[in-house]
Amino acid sequence: MLNKKTGRTLVASILSLAMALVSTGGAVAETPAAAVTIQNDVFWQDTSGNPVYSQGGGVLKVGNTYYWYGAKYNGAVSYYNNPGGGKNGDTSLSAITIYSSTDLANWKFEGNALTGSDLGGGWVGRIGVARNPKTGKYVLVSQLNSGLVFATSSTPNGRFTKSGTQSNIAGVSTGMSGDQSVFTDDDGKAYLIYSNKSGRSHLYVSSLRASDYLQVDPAKNVYNASAGREGNIMFKYNGTYYFCSSDLHGWNSSHTYCISAKNIMGPYSAEFVLQGTDADFSHVTQTGLAFTVTGSQGSFVMFGGDRWSDFAGNGIGYNQWLPVTFSGSTPVFHSLSQWTVDAAAGTWAVGRGNNHVLNPSAEADRVAQNNLAGWTITGGNVNSNKQGGHTGRWAFAQSSSSAYNASRYQNIALPNGTYTLSAWVKSSGGQKRATVFAKNFGGAELSAAINRSLGSWTKVEVPGIQVTNGSVQVGVFSDANAGNWVNVDDFSLVQTG
Q: Which residues pair with 396 in a beta bridge?
């Protein structure tokens, strides 16, 4: 893709070890010649160099081409042009966009399926497309205000025509869907995957009307969660259906919760947290879309996390795509900032430039807290998060009105090699000792001193970290006097040799 620019040690260890494996057989993967790079944590651009605007959408594969449909909100354009300006509430729809790709990294803008004026304004979102085998039409299903809208096209990349609406789904406790997505099964049948509109604790599956997909059939209540669920998606792997959702956090990052079944209508398992989504809340995203990538050598599930940056303030980039693999029937999410994919082969590998730190920008937790996802602290409430980061809304902070000794750190399992640690820092200065550090990697501790006055965000680096034991601890430490403070943001640990 063209680009513009907490002690939860066990989770981190499992993730980092798994990241070194491809999805087929578990062999360590060299990036194959046909592989292309997916770079997260940036704004994506299409093959013409223009911003990719696609949120709350879905992907449909036709032949060897993947078609990606999503919403272009006017507020997303504003945020892209000025991310430092922070959140905005402009959810008005510019258009439902269409992009196409054969490699899942380079996306061509095909045009707009529908514009805001085509739909008469109002809230539009949670878009999916399926091909009806009886009519041969491609049918787009989306939320429109308090109901659903349907549109059709004779081609997957053509202009769509509004073809109907629906204001009630039979069997739903509140009469209409909350967040939703469209899932097409192996036999070509299409379904709506959703929660109820208000409260959103009831999870439903409905088939689309077989004759034309222009109506949602009565709901099957497949599960009732203990709390509200949104961002509902489905994927299928080895005959098992996985219905996954996020917390009801209003566009914010979340663990990913899943239930599974052998029949799409159930019975479903008890709810579980998708392994690998806890340490950084699904790479600081909300569940957005999912589909299976199957090739000549293997398969994996593509998880498309929506960052909703302009509405939630979760950092740079709207679209964060990550691989999900399986340990038996247990799905495992791999949180990566950079990775490579070979869509034809159905394989993937960790990218050379991947940042191995999880929740590196303190964005995952979304609210003011002392204990942050993925990190361990000493010194107690001296540690916190602080609004006003180098990027995004939050940064790590250490401060107290009394003298203190505190640290925040993360233990990371990773391949042996040479690494550089970096971070962006502000500091009051005056501490007895304050550092960004790396240790427990098989050599003596290395650090960058930050006990000096740094009034603006300043990047510090710790190069030449020679990892020989497959792990490292990185973090920030302060031995400080009363009133001393330090803010740290955007940790990065990248292999250099």
A: 385, 488
Distance of CA 318 to the CA centre of its chain: 9
Closest CA to 412 of 471, 361, 468: 471
Q: State the Cα–Cα distance between residues 425 and 360, nearest whole angstrom.
A: 13
User: Could you tell me the sign of the dihedral formed by the alpha carbons of 273, 275, 276, 278, in that order?
Assistant: positive
The closest alpha carbon to 79, from 290, 315, 399, belongs to 315
pLDDT higher than 70, residue 31: no
The total number of residues shown for the chain amounts to 497
Strand 190-196's sheet: what is its strand order? 177-184, 190-196, 202-207, 220-224
Quote the CA–CA distance of 7 and 139 in Å, as a whole number. 47
- Can you give the pTM of this predicted structure? 0.92
CA distances for 72 relative to 69, 79, 97, angstroms: 10, 12, 7
Amino acid, res. 428 = S
| φ, ψ of residue 249 in degrees (nearest 5) | -110, 5
Residue 58, token pair as written in the block: 């879905």
**Of 32 and 332, the one with more pLDDT:** 332
Residues 6+ apart with CB under 8 A from 444: none
Amino acid present at 293: V
Region of 103 please: left (phi>0), alpha (psi -120 to 50) or beta: alpha
* Backbone region of residue 123 per phi and psi (left: phi > 0; alpha: psi in -120 to 50; beta: other values): beta
Q: Is 463 helix (H, G, I), strand (E, B) or coil?
A: strand
**Residue 431 burial (10 A CB sphere; 0-12, 13-18, 19+):** buried
pLDDT (tens digit per residue) in 402-459? 999 999 999 999 999 999 999 999 999 999 999 999 999 999 999 999 999 999 999 9
CA atoms within 13 A on the CB side of 286: 28
DSSP 337-352: SEEEEETTTTEEEE-T
Residue with tokens 């004779």: 154
- For 283-300, what is each residue's pLDDT tens digit? 999 999 999 999 999 999
Spell out a b/e string for 306-321, using b for 16 or more CB atoms within 10 Å of the CB, else e.
bbbbbbbbbbbbbbbb
CA distance 192 to 304: 17
H or E, element range at 453: none
